[in-house]
Amino acid sequence: MGVGYSWGGGTLTFQGQEYPFRIDGLSVGDVGISSPDAIGSVYNLTKLEDFSCNYAAASACAALAGGGSVATMQNQNRVVIDLSAAGA
Hints:
four-stranded antiparallel beta sheet, 1 helix, 6 strands, globular, mainly beta
């Protein structure tokens, strides 16, 4: 179980357009990322409105060579985000 309450934001690039988004209520330990900065790839996104949903950890955190980590989250629309600590 994660510790803390995190918020932040980023930019989703979808079909050549950039969309700012905000994250609220993510407990960073729940998804296995201990760095406050992360980057990610999004899969299974066919409609922009499917991105904005509740996400849950879909797989355990895996350690990367060099000390980074990666985690996978999925929402109820089957949109998947693979997150890795920035710089990993």
